[in-house]
Amino acid sequence: xxxxxxxxxxxxxxxxxxxxxxxxxxxxxxxxxxxxxxxxxxxxxxxxxxxxxxxxxxxxxxxxxxxxxxxxxxxxxxxxxxxxxxxxxxxxxxxxxxxxxxxxxxxxxxxxxxxxxxxxxxxxxxxxxxxxxxxxxxxxxxxxxxxxxxxxxxxxxxxxxxxxxxxxxxxxxxxxxxxxxxxxxxxxxxxxxxxxxxxxxxxxxxxxxxxxxxxxxxxxxxxxxxxxxxxxxxxxxxxxxxxxxxxxxxxxxxxxxxxxxxxxxxxxxxxxxxxxxxxxxxxxxxxxxxxxxxxxxxxxxxxxxxxxxx
Amino acid sequence: xxxxxxxxxxxxxxxxxxxxxxxxxxxxxxxxxxxxxxxxxxxxxxxxxxxxxxxxxxxxxxxxxxxxxxxxxxxxxxxxxxxxxxxxxxxxxxxxxxxxxxxxxxxxxxxxxxxxxxxxxxxxxxxxxxxxxxxxxxxxxxxxxxxxxxxxxxxxxxxxxxxxxxxxxxxxxxxxxxxxxxxxxxxxxxxxxxxxxxxxxxxxxxxxxxxxxxxxxxxxxxxxxxxxxxxxxxxxxxxxxxxxxxxxxxxxxxxxxxxxxxxxxxxxxxxxxxxxxxxxxxxxxxxxxxxxxxxxxxxxxxxxxxxxxxxxxxxxxxxxxxxxxxxxxxxxxxxxxxxxxxxxxxxxxxxxxxxxxxxxxxxxxxxxxxxxxxxxxxxxxxxxxxxxxxxxxxxxxxxxxxxxxxxxxxxxxxxxxxxxxxxxxxxxxxxxxxxxxxxxx
Lengths: 310, 441
Known about the structure:
The complex is a heterodimer.
Chain A: H1 20-55, E1 58-61, E2 71-74, H2 78-85, H3 87-119, H4 126-138, H5 141-152, H6 159-163, H7 173-198, H8 202-210, H9 215-226, H10 228-243, H11 247-253, H12 265-275, H13 279-309
Antiparallel strand pairs in A: 1-2
Helix pairs in contact in A: 2-13, 3-7, 3-10, 4-7, 5-11, 8-9, 10-13, 12-13
Chain B: H1 3-24, E1 29-30, E2 33-34, E3 43-49, H2 54-64, E4 68-74, H3 82-91, E5 98-102, H4 106-110, H5 119-122, H6 131-136, E6 146-147, E7 153-158, H7 159-164, H8 173-186, H9 200-209, E8 215-218, E9 221-224, H10 229-243, H11 255-262, E10 268-272, H12 275-282, E11 290-294, E12 310-314, H13 321-333, H14 336-341, H15 352-361, E13 367-368, H16 372-381, H17 392-403, H18 413-430, E14 435-437
Parallel strand pairs in B: 3-4, 9-14, 11-13
Antiparallel strand pairs in B: 1-2, 5-12, 6-12, 7-10, 7-11, 8-9
Helix pairs in contact in B: 1-2, 9-10, 9-17, 10-18, 17-18
């Protein structure tokens, strides 16, 4: 979690007076210590990524009734073009874009406000309070989804009666899904922000107070700017998480027909691989999602460094 | 969703299975797989299945003879992972000897080229099976599977309430519309049944009855006719029922559905043979309230659809196809099997002599009126011709995706059905299959 620390000490420069042999020995030790990580990286990340890239270039072509079995054919970027042209894929991207638009601001702002309240002395019973907000994160996503699905259910759940509308209809299901994700993640991010706030130098806060800044002013002008890098890192994770949203809509799909089988990009991949049995298209879609994730993260990080260095 | 009852029962049957294996003195057991305790000299046959009670059948088979030893691995049900696991195993050349296929999933599995042609092995059994089941394992005139059971659709209704309010059992869909209005008249909150929009296999079963098969294998070409006259008639009918708010929308077997039935808000169920088990389990206290009838018809001419049914195929790469066949013949035709099945479910075997055994073993008492097996038998006899296409399972998702906006008025069922037809044809052509649109003679 060191990436989340608001300010990192600059890495110690290596002293040039050190004998060369010791450096080599150190390198060797480093290599040995890196082996377990390297093995895991190769086996669980690099090989599957390479295999996905390989799969994404092939398709299974059938003939006639198809009962004579498939032929494995190389199609260059055919699968990619198919996914890019697929209106279901576009719809899934549209859904997660809207989802992100609701989920990211409400979750981050909610977490930030909760963390600031926790950090200021306003709140009594800090432990109890933070635990209460954090608990949803400890609930497995499927269980959380099921709990909400029953709450949302228009016939047996209370929410329709309380709010006066059906939370699972085709217009409201997207905010309902965002609500599950926000409920799940707000406590987790609150803890991260709160931890970052602990590292805000006391003297700056005291100086601000001496200059007559109130609690709100201190939070806005001192605390938030200091923990901005943390906020951006949390934003990057949330952007990636939003793009990959899967479990919440998948659970709600069993309760309402308004969540399609390709509702989010991850569900699109799942449908291609496990329902349609089209591994090539599933692989191509996965690669595209990974690329979109990388680009979006880069954009957010770029934005963050520009803002911080101002 | 004939899968959900099976899933719900999994825990129970696994426990029963533990007991059964313990009694047989099997040594150890890993996560639902039988451990190898094959008697010396026996041929081992591996099977993957999600059929409720398969553990008990396998245990009985292994105990009954010494030549073949069956190793069962319980896998996730159908579209919850079972099909994906089996197709991937075929692709990876490590499929088990026996695979679990439903009639609706068989052609899709056949696209992998991973099943063995059983035409010669099964030829002598034709006359012993329900014709609908026999056709189900022969999509192109060759036999690819051994039928196990069959799930004709029937109408379950609250006979006590119907009788009390003088509503006659509907025999045609026109009657059904009148009956639906009468039910709503009695109780504004009650509906005659639910028409779930996110269950493609249910809609397929309803359309099946209308007599226009969605697929037909014609020589080397698939004729695809999902937007045929019968299906459009079905779609228009239910669209008007939904628009007039005459049917509920809850999904079969969910908590909402169970709650609706508990509270007397659902007076009927358009279900299949497996609904007997669902009703018994979900609302055990409703004994003596429900009755079963064959489906209302379009024109008085008897016709019933089918929703589900299990068969088993043998892997093309199996090293022990004869032993696998020995087991499957036993499983499908031995009278012991329905006897065992009757202890925990209400089996409806595809094998006619075995169906008689199941009828004998059925305890009864839950339903009023005509005996359940009589009604199911009658329903199974009325099944029109039907062939499942090689994209049936995927089509079920397409259907539920396309039907999603129907309830809010975003689209209508007939429009959605035409969209599904387009989608299916495009999808099949993209995979290289030979496709002709519409019904062709």
